[in-house]
Task: inverse folding
């Protein structure tokens, strides 16, 4: 069936995606930052091939400071501008939540006509700032509370508490990547999940049952002895 919501105006509707990426000093261990850079570039390439929906990607990093690495823009525009992340500093995750919320609340950046935004948090460590207050504000007030959320840990010793709290209410697990193979597999799954949304009659509906089947498959196939 034709998706009239996409085609009635002749315009491609926007799907906002914010990546909250840890680039703290610990991400330099075992090449984790290199795997993250590789995965993001492959994700952008995949999104660039989608024509039915305009996936707007914004990237917020947190290391020595929390910053907007790339403002929201079409994946095709971001690809040539991408600069690899360098690992350095502490883990100001709370500041990253604050920046993400400011973007989500801004109707000039994210129109009320856009599809439901998705925010993905990727980290290996415990936040070093007042993250709980910022997270509570993020998931319980304003427009940000309506966005969809995913979280991925990096490394077998990653701190799961902030990631678990980030996805409260989403009916999703934390994707625990304990090796490079796990990490790449989970990132490809997330890319596929977003792509699946763009092909749906209603991209605002998140197919959790289908996601769980794919997650279980990834877990069963991505067992690796080469843990971080």
Result:
């Amino acid at each position: 069936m034709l998706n009239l919501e996409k085609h009635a105006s002749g315009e491609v509707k926007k799907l906002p995606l914010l990546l909250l990426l840890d680039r703290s000093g610990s991400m330099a261990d075992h090449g984790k930052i290199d795997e993250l850079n590789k995965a993001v570039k492959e994700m952008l390439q995949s999104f660039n091939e989608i024509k039915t929906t305009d996936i707007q990607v914004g990237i917020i990093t947190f290391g020595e400071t929390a910053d907007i690495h790339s403002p929201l823009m079409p994946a095709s525009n971001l690809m040539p501008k991408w600069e690899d992340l360098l690992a350095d500093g502490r883990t100001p995750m709370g500041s990253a939540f604050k920046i993400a919320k400011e973007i989500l609340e801004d109707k000039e950046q994210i129109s009320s006509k856009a599809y439901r935004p998705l925010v993905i948090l990727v980290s290996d460590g415990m936040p070093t700032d007042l993250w709980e207050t910022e997270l509570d504000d993020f998931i319980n007030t304003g427009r940000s509370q309506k966005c969809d959320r995913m979280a991925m840990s990096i490394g077998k010793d990653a701190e799961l508490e902030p990631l678990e709290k980030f996805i409260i209410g989403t009916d999703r697990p934390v994707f625990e990547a304990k090796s490079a193979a796990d990490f790449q597999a989970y990132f490809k799954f997330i890319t596929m999940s977003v792509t699946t949304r763009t092909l749906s009659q209603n991209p605002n509906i998140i197919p959790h049952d289908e996601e769980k089947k794919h997650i279980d498959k990834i877990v069963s196939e991505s067992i690796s002895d080469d843990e971080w």
User: Anything to note?
Assistant: The first strand starts at residue 14 and ends at 22. Residues 1-8 have pLDDT under 50 and may be disordered.
